[in-house]
Design goal:
Elements: H1 2-24, E1 30-32, E2 35-37, H2 59-75
């Protein structure tokens, strides 16, 4: 009877240790399918600043296309 209680206490202790280690190992920031998922501590992270850019991301390409069309019309 004593060995059964000792065995049960040991198994409960091991299960508790496994649960604690599983909980402690979570909360890391990770990347899944191209998405960066936040850690459990994202509210305490430092704020990153990204400078405001142009609203239209392809402004240089649009200007180059406009210039190419203007040159094409001049050559006709």
């Amino acid at each position: 009877m004593y060995s059964r209680m000792k065995s049960r206490a040991l198994s409960l202790l091991l299960c508790g240790a496994a649960i604690i280690s599983a909980v402690a190992s979570t909360g890391c920031q990770m990347s899944v399918a191209g998405q960066t998922l936040p850690s459990a501590y994202f509210l305490r992270d430092d704020v990153q600043y990204f400078a405001k850019g142009p609203e239209f991301k392809l402004s240089r390409e649009a200007a180059a296309l406009k210039e190419a069309r203007a040159n094409e019309n001049r050559n006709r």
